[in-house]
Give the backbone structure.
Amino acid sequence: MLNLILFGPPGSGKGTQSEGLIKKYQLQHLSTGDILRSEIANQTALGLEAKKFMDKGILVPDEVVIGMIGSKIDACMAQDVAGFIFDGFPRTIPQAEALDRLMSFKNIPLNKVLSLEVSEQELVKRLLERGTTSGRADDQNEEIIRQRVVEYRIKTEPVAGFYDKQKKLVRIKGEGTVDEIFTSLCKAIDSL
Ligand code: B4P
């Protein structure tokens, strides 16, 4: 199995690059952002709870996200998958520890953590641009976007150190064209 984490701040291109990677490597895409938005669209209890946090640019509580990803992995393992791309998960140290436990319990490896490095100025520009077309509440307002970046710096950035210690972290320049960044990601994956 090939199992990867696509890591990086909001707007760094995790969702964009996942699209190409899942096609090329035939991987199962697990995006906690997408799963949460679908729960909101279906007005489930989990979605209604998550929306309160997401609309403010704050991370959804760990126990909600960890339970959610655990059941998605179980559902995918019931089918025959070549591997997973985790997109937007883990976003905190407790989430990373929970994923380690889950993977080792299921006896599946985590091969690499690919970290997209993008400046804050570029992140805010991209998300405001997407806000004009996506209809996403968390992309509409610069204050909320900056709050998401603050959440990233405080709660998510330490996760890079967690995987660096495990010698799994690869830093990739996340600025340039989508194709250029895709080529760098593929190079890192193919060197495995
Ligand atoms: P996510 O859905 O994960 O979204 P994201 O971080 O905003 O975006 P991503 O990095 O995927 O950017 P994209 O490719 O789309 O999270 C949303 C919210 O959900 C979080 O704030 C949080 O509240 C909650 N959440 C999700 N996971 C959670 C977790 N594990 N724990 C707790 N809470 C969680 O790109 C953005 C824009 O840039 C697009 O418009 C794209 O076209 C553009 N772009 C991409 N690459 C580009 C390039 N090379 N050049 C120019 N523009 C580019």
In short: Residues 2-118+158-190 form a domain with the Rossmann fold fold (CATH 3.40.50.300). Residues 10 and 149 are 7 Å apart (CA to CA). Residues 8, 10-16, 32-33, 36, 53-54, 57, 59-60, 65, 88-89, 91, 95, 126, 130, 138, 148, 178, 181 surround BIS(adenosine)-5'-tetraphosphate (CB under 6 Å). The chain is about 60% helix and 15% strand.
